[in-house]
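Case study B.
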Amino acid sequence: MVVNVNYEEIIMKETVVTICSGTLCYVMGGAALLSLKDHIREDLRDSVIVKASPCLGYCKDPAQGKPPFVEVNGEKIAQADVSAILSKIIRG
Amino acid sequence: MINNSYFLEIEYNQFYKYRNNVPGDVFMTSRSDDAKIITVLSDGLGSGIKANVLATLSATMASQFIKRNIDICKSARIIIDTLPVCNVRKIGYSTFTVSSIDNNGHVRVIEYDNPPFLLFKNNVYTPVDCENIKIGSSEYKEDSINYYSFNTEFGDRIIFMSDGVTQSGMGKDSTPLGWGTTECIKYIENILQTDPEISARQLSKKIVSKSLQNDDHFPHDDITCAVLYCRQPRKLLVVTGPSIKEENDVIMKEAVAAFPGKKIICGGTTAKIISRELNVPVEVNLCSPRSDVPPEAFMEGVDLVTEGILTLCKVTRILENGLESDYIYDAAYKMAVLLLDSDSIHFIVGTKINEVHQDPNMPIEIEIRRNIIRKIMVILEEKYLKKTELQFI
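Model:
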């Protein structure tokens, strides 16, 4: 997958990305998100902390959206993919 | 479990003859109706499919006769007469060593044409008196069996080997007649002195690996070694699934905190509950190899934390097919290893059904947790002779 990101827009502040590794998120695309760091330019990887979490619980409430769920600095992204996560990191 | 003082761990390891896909040696275990444990090691003449079929036939017959308490001489005679005899070598097409262990630790062993079994007491080889019983003649030779009867105690080990072990290295300058029983005994005693609590699984693996080394990694015959170890039961607790009642979270926490053995928490929600109750963080391991199950997590005081149902389904497959059927060292493999390295496994299963798992949009079908746990328990008891207990919460 090719992801076009303008890295010059990124301010080098620390960002914490938490990927839900619960059952539903894992089978609905979350497994692929665990290698998120491979999609971030090498010199910027240190400013992004990628963590995985046991089930974040969003899947229990349909109003929260569809899995896979990811949190970027505590803010939830539903139906997350690499492109959506990187956009969120850039926008802050 | 033999009695309240020890558990009988039974494991075997095997290498096939070079370029064979099927072993000519067969090792079987089973339990009789009166709770005796029966083991049989049979070596089919030659190698490959034919040898495997003959070894399986004699092992199955021997196991069934012993279960039904049929006279041993009569049983041995029937098996020997059933099997063909090689025209050229004038020996039977299969050997067998049968053992029967009752709940009081009393052992009977019947050997026909296999290397003699080895008994180790206090980590030292201990010869056992043998009665050689003639059981009649076939066309080519007088047949006899070796019969042993003795009692086991805590710490004893009984080792059965095919001649692929004792004859490994045959023809080399250093071991022209093969490794031999005497050298094999010295090797085992060395291991037991260095590691007196080595498990049956690890010991059998070391013996077959040494035999393979003797053969310069080109085994001239199938190499099989089975170890029976009268040990302190290794206990394991598996906690999986939240309770339908929140007030039971405390019971779960207390079970984990007080359990005198290894512990596995299986399920993200379960892990979060126990983490909250014990005030200990959970951290998912992103360095875990990528696989079809989510990565495991760390929690202080717990040996393994995994995701729930996907991991349990994979554990079931691994246990059914054997550890060697899967090479990814993921959470499911680690859980399978912990289960197989334990003797007595206590399952605490939460009764709350996760409705999200039944979403029809899911790309895979997911079984209900308690059904999967029951399947795992049956495999552990019937295939691996473990002791299991189940508690719903």
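The interface with chain B takes residues 21-24, 26-28, 31, 34-35, 50-55, 57, 59-60 of chain A (CB under 8 Å). The remaining cases will be described in the next quarterly update.
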